[in-house]
Amino acid sequence: MLYNLFASHDGIFNVLRYTSFRAGAALIISIIFSLILGKYLIPVFKKLQGQGQTIREDGPQSHLSKKGTPTMGGFIFIIAFLLSSILFADLTNPFVWIALAVTAGFFLVGFADDYLVVKKKSSKGLSAKLRLLIEFLIVGSAVYAIQQLFPFNLQNEVLLPFFKDFSLDLGIFFIVFACVVVVGTSNAVNITDGLDGLATLISINVISVLAIFAFLLGRVDYSNYLHFQYIPYASELLILSFAFIGGLLGFYWYNSKPAQIFMGDCGSLAIGGFLGILSVMLKSEFVLAIAGAVFIAEISSSVIQRVYYKISNGKRVFKMAPLHHHFELSGWAEEKIVARFWIISFLFCMIALLSIKLR
Fold first, then answer.
1. What one-character DSSP code corresponds to residue 157?
2. Using CA atoms, how far apart are residues 324 and 293, in angstroms rounded to an integer?
3. Residue 166 dihedral angles phi and psi, to the nearest 5°
4. pLDDT for residue 121 is more than 80
5. Comparing C-alpha atoms, which of 136, 83, 86 is closest to residue 109?
């Protein structure tokens, strides 16, 4: 909004013409918004929710001490993200509105799920089928809109990391592929959100990688030099990414152990929706797969556990799924798991960034 109102003016407003300045400002303002919102919303949520998020009785016994911690913390960083993005992004850019719409849509799905969980005082919210149906409808509409913004020869293309002049043309299957990427990412982040600060820190890592790709792909000079496909609308996604990172950093102030609030499904689904749709707009779905390796490991462990349990008459591969619970039951302290998963996430993010030059 500020860019559209004042960027054409000379003097001090001239800095609004620079994407890097607006990205930095979006980060700072989003942190401030998130910190302020957290201070005032956490007591409200605690009062309204009573016992807070339901803690699984069959989970690690150490989690029973978390009883009474409020959920729906996604309100804190999503509101900060939306406000900061609207303030500093170019609101004539269609990618901006698509990303905001998908994030808000997944936030609302998660909110409905959280509300039912708190209201029923159980671990079950929306039915899985209904939730997936709504998510696929949101993403399908968004991906179709994204396709119309690309030249015909790029509409169904997927860029491959580590390959300079090679990409996949998925044809009519691209929309299905993109929907699976976004919905899968949202649910992977949702499953990862089981320890204080875990999903928050790893999400910051992965968004940072996609932010760098947005900066490079959104500039003709850098994209040509690196032999990437130039994506005209991509540069504004840097601002949205920094706004999201700022919101998460402010939220981590309250979400670090011992957490004062959990992000809930409204937070984790929104993060995954943002990551997924960002990767689709940047034609970087496989980059997301590398940078988000921890997310993939977490959701894969749950799938493996469930399938093996059914085919082996009740036997398990892991002590408990998802993966972070397996290590908890193996005697690892919660702080150790979060720190080590973050380190592993950082390593895979560096590998994803190396693909920029190793092509």
1. E
2. 14
3. -135, 135
4. no
5. 136
Report which residue type is found at 281. M
pLDDT in tens, 139-177: 999 999 999 998 877 788 888 888 877 788 888 899 999
Instruction: Give the other-Cβ count within 10 Å of 238's Cβ.
Output: 25
| DSSP letter string, 7-44 | TTS-GGGGGGG-HHHHHHHHHHHHHHHHHHHHHHHHHH
299 contacts 187 by C-beta, under 8 angstroms: yes
Query: Is there a contact between 175 and 139 (Cβ–Cβ < 8 Å)?
Result: no
Place of tokens 């030099």: 225
The first and second tokens of residue 99, run together, are 């990303």
Task: Encode pLDDT of 302-353 as tens digits.
Answer: 999 999 988 888 889 999 989 999 999 899 999 999 999 999 999 999 999 9
DSSP designation for 63 = G
Q: Which residue do the tokens 């990391």 mark?
A: 161
Collapsed DSSP state (helix, strand, coil) of residue 156: coil
Which sign does the torsion angle of CA 323, 338, 261, 257 carry?
positive
The DSSP secondary-structure symbol of 240 reads H
Report the SS3 class of residue 169: strand
For 262-314, the pLDDT digits (tens) are: 999 999 999 999 999 999 999 999 999 999 999 999 999 999 999 998 888 88
Closest C-alpha among 138, 146, 137 to residue 174: 146
